[in-house]
Specification:
- The protein has 14 helices and 6 strands.
- By secondary structure, the chain is mainly α.
- It has 3 domains: about 110 residues, Dna Ligase, domain 1; about 90 residues, Dna Ligase, domain 1 (2-Layer Sandwich), CATH 3.30.1490; about 110 residues, no CATH class.
- A two-stranded antiparallel sheet has the order 1-2. The chain has a two-stranded antiparallel sheet with strand order 3-4. The chain has a two-stranded antiparallel ribbon with strand order 5-6.
- Helix 3 packs antiparallel against helix 4 and helix 11 crosses helix 13.
- Its EC number is 4.2.2.29.
- This is Endolytic murein transglycosylase.
């Protein structure tokens, strides 16, 4: 019921926003996006709600703690939804939506157990609502995140996390609107450090999706449209770059290579990206097998084999970080079509505009490897 009311609230918010514009309101933006800054996403903040505090007092606490920017939005949503505050100690995370905070402090979402100041060391181990700090590195596929969730002791383990991903209500996230039918959420579980709730994998998946929503701004989405790319296509490119790049400065140049190949109808080959085939053939024993050790894998018949198929694979192959997404939206501007590893420990690459230049770089790489 609360979810349905909140959906109604989103419609009402549009009307409120229009009213503020008409009356000269200067903080309309805060009503539309009430989030922490991207650098703060996932930062834990302890909040205590006392029995004598009303909604306005709690909104002030949240604003002072940097959890929200607009007290008006929080108090308005609380009153329209009919939510009631539950006194107690809570742990909230910057980057949570106002809806999530309301759910938490009204008892809809699990309250985080806190040790009492009197010295009860067992209070935080009671189970229900207990959190654990979990870091999701860039470039991991959904199954790898499921493994991280299992290792962190989250209820349901590996399978529980994957099931929670499948059960996401995609209508709650506008950035999922252009996903092709039957597409997974691969690419949209944003890597960062989060406070996972131990007994609620579904809530944890929501945190990852909200992390994406907070980081990938409307300006970035508009930039994708200007490049004639859907957000899904941008994230697919970014996921390939995330798996290929080892040196940060090379991300925009690697983006050049794949964007040039993709957009040039005269280029004779496909994207020819090893990681897309690795994604297809990977198993839980080895998610990213070394194709140099088994060249036969490059013959795998699959839409993810970008040696056999032109264009992009069906979707992202991992969950990329902010830098790789930015590299797609703001590539290096070179005319490079080829790259090969240099063979150094840093993982740098040689880049080339022509096949002939590329062959010379391949020779240099072969010599470097032979000398090691």
């Amino acid at each position: 019921m609360l979810r349905a009311i909140v959906q109604l609230l989103k419609i009402l918010t549009i009307g409120v926003t229009a009213l503020l514009v008409a009356t000269g309101g200067a903080r309309v933006f805060d009503l539309a996006i009430d989030r922490a800054t991207p650098d703060d996403i996932g930062e834990e903040v302890a909040i205590e709600i006392n029995e004598d505090e009303d909604v306005d007092a709690v909104a002030t606490k949240l604003a002072d703690a940097g959890l929200i920017r607009s007290k008006l939005l929080f108090t308005g949503q609380m009153r329209i939804t009919g939510g009631s505050l539950k006194p107690g100690k809570y742990t909230l995370a910057k980057g949570m939506t106002v809806e999530q905070m309301i759910d938490r402090v009204s008892g809809v979402e699990p309250q985080v157990a806190q040790a009492e100041e009197a010295g009860d060391d067992t209070a935080a181990d009671t189970g229900a609502g207990e959190t654990v700090s979990v870091t999701i590195p860039e470039g991991r596929r959904i199954e790898e995140i499921a493994e991280i969730s299992e290792e962190a002791g989250i209820e349901g383990g590996y399978d529980g996390f994957l099931q929670a991903v499948k059960e996401v209500d995609r209508s709650q996230y506008d950035f999922l609107a252009d996903l092709p039918p039957n597409a997974s959420l691969e690419g949209f579980l944003f890597p960062n450090t989060y406070d996972f709730v131990k007994d609620d994998p579904g809530y944890n998946v929501a945190q990852l999706l909200n992390g994406f929503d907070a980081q990938v701004t409307q300006e970035m989405r508009d930039r994708a449209k200007a490049m004639n790319l859907s957000l899904h296509e941008v994230i697919t490119f970014a996921s390939i770059i995330e798996r290929e790049a080892r040196v940060p400065d090379e991300r925009p140049i690697i983006a050049d290579v794949y964007l040039n190949r993709y957009s040039d109808p005269d280029f004779p080959g496909g994207l020819e990206a090893d990681p897309t085939t690795q994604y297809e053939v990977g198993t839980r024993e080895e998610w990213w097998p070394d194709l140099n050790e088994n060249k036969d894998l490059l013959e795998t018949p699959s839409p993810y084999n970008t040696y056999k198929n032109r264009g992009l694979p069906p979707g992202p192959i991992c969950n990329p970080g902010f830098a790789s997404i930015q590299a797609v939206l703001f590539p290096g501007g070179t005319n490079n079509y080829f790259f090969v590893a240099t063979g150094d420990e840093a993982g740098t690459h040689y880049f080339a505009e022509t096949w002939e230049e590329h062959q010379e770089n391949v020779r240099l790489y072969t010599e470097a490897v032979a000398d090691q």
